[in-house]
Amino acid sequence: MARRRVIESVDGNVLPMRKAILFRRKGRFWPDIFRPGRYMCILMFWGLMTLLFMMLLAKFALLNTLHDLKLDQSEFITARSVEISIRTNKLITEGDDIIISEFKKIPLLPKLTLPDIWTKPNTDLYYKCVQRSSKDIISGDPTNGYILVHSNGGLNQMKTGISDMVAIAKVMNATLVLPSLDHNSFWTDPSDFKDIFDWKHFVEYLEEDISVVDHLPPAYASIKPHQRAPVSYSKASYYSNQMSSLLKKHKVINFTHTDSRLANNGLPNPIQRLRCRAMYEALKFTDEILELADKLITRLRDDDKPFIALHLRYEKDMLAFTGCSHNLSKAEDEELRQLRRSVRHWKEKHIDGEERRRQGVCPMTPREVAVFLEAIGFPSDTKIYIVAGNIYGQDGVKALQDKYPNIYTHSNLATEDELSPFNNRQNKLAAVDYTVALESDVFVFTYDGNMAKAVQGHRKYEGFRKTIIPDKKNFVKLIDRMDKGLISWEEFSMKVKILHANRTGGAVLRKPGKVVKSEESFYANPYPGCICEK
Q: Which biological process annotations from GO are given for this protein (predicted)?
């Protein structure tokens, strides 16, 4: 012990002694760390953490790759399959407010052509999913009461409203009495439910979902119905709680309004599927309507060529309601203004029509439609079936017919005898037009109203049949620039093609909006809800 102290104290020479000790400790470090104990646990822990981090990086890289590969091939080709030349080497960026049209250099591609204008979107990965499960089948529990329904609006507004009432009756465990239809709308059509829909099919198809009766049973006929207009865009809980309590109390409720009484989103899947079963399966038109529609479709296809169904909503009531009078005379504009003032339930009386047009919310004019279809690439011999009533204005459809002479309606395709049962029955004629539009090769609508929503949603339900959805806000900017000579026809047409390359009615998820009233309608796009991905 004395020698050790002397060695460590001479001249302060302790460093050699500590170095020796350090080397001896280092020599023992690596054998010790692999022995069971604390050091081995620490090594394993950090090794596992490193492995987990690498696995997460690999996962995110794989997901991004799969997402890129999942892009629909036909849409990818469509968006890029345009003939690009140096003179028209411009890009359009679709947005809410502007079109970016500055020159931007991009690699020139070989000359390509757009897919056939009649080709529908590629939807091989999707299928209908509206089947009811065993637990959704109606039970033998006593009904909470009876619901009387007064459907309001035109045909398609009533159709979607009735579909909602079917789902509401399910939520409330109520019996639905066959709905009555609106006879006081713009067309004052006296037709009732049995005149337009196959009521026996309606009852039988829904018998496992809800109970439907023709009229109130005698025990309830003397009860004064409780009048109620349900809150618009309500969730299922509103009906299962508040409305069900009222039904149990009064036994008979009369819903005075049916339009948009259920939310588009946030409902249980069985309720969404029931809405589709009601809308697309149960509400079948009468044989009389379907037979006339089939005759018109056969005549349109007599030369085995495809046809367009065009919902040209350039009608007096719609123009008055929206305040749109572009290309109309001052006298016609004043006539629309007087009509708008005379309809009490139209809240907006003073409207800037030109501003509405710039915002893309006006129906397209016949001339705008002709230019649009030509720019998309439809040849002048294309057959067009107009799904609408009388086109307003002294020129009517002249601007469209000058470019596309093969214009048809139910009036010039059907004989007088065939149309006689439909005289003064605008809702029945609308049902004929609806059927023709549903079965058309391409459906184009010029205003996003009730019929446009109903038909495009039904076409998606039937396999995403091609539906061209005009981007009116950007189209108006383009056509105005062309009319002013700021862009050539070639540049205009190219931009319209690109702008609408992916607006063809393909599979796009419906998403909730910030404002319920302005979000995408469930019946315009039943995906998700009634369409599923394989």
A: fucose metabolic process
